[in-house]
């Protein structure tokens, strides 16, 4: 196990453990690798920009931002992903400063960054408003907050809804992650602290899977939240079979049976007031 440098409450410790399961870096590279470059392009990151990537995982957005010449700090809650990202950036000769951090309590000063990014990252923090407050706090006036979040109606949003009966109840006061993929929710979180907001629904083409069963096998092996759901029902063969069927059917309904899926996400770029 990679040793953590920060102390977390039980809710966030559990959250961190979920994302340490499996191999999210593999998912990030093999399945959703196109999201990071798309986010960096939309954020219009330029050489010399001070960029913070929050809930960066292993660097899906951090590395392409650094490749543009930006001064990048990448943070994540999960030490295992940080270490993978650190190795990946070093191998590519990219200068990225990796830090373990809680998105709800970012260890940076006010107005410290020109651009703050999150690529399907902070959307999974359980308490949305304090995270939104932190994104705004660390981004300078006139700077940009750029995010990619899975939509509630898209495939990943529907997958989390479908897994809900198979996982423990969420912590009181938490909000489902895919709500970050609804533009009205984002506007409410940022309120009058932004001068403008551009939002666009896009589709990520996914040709990695040949069937619903293929998708189920891959995500049950590599994707932390799916692995956690299977562990939660491991002692109940009927529930395990039901989870299998739910994921296979959902993936087939979204195109896996034909070898091509489109996963909807919301791209948001907000200018800080």
UniProtKB/TrEMBL annotation:
One Pfam family matching this protein: Methyltransf_11
Gene Ontology MF, one: S-adenosylmethionine-dependent methyltransferase activity
Keyword Mitochondrion: no
Domain (Methyltransferase type): residue spans on this chain: 52-146
Alphabetical keyword list: Methyltransferase, Transferase, Ubiquinone
SUPFAM superfamilies registered for this protein in UniProt: S-adenosyl-L-methionine-dependent methyltransferases
GO biological process: methylation
UniProt protein name: Ubiquinone/menaquinone biosynthesis C-methylase UbiE
Originating species: Nakamurella panacisegetis
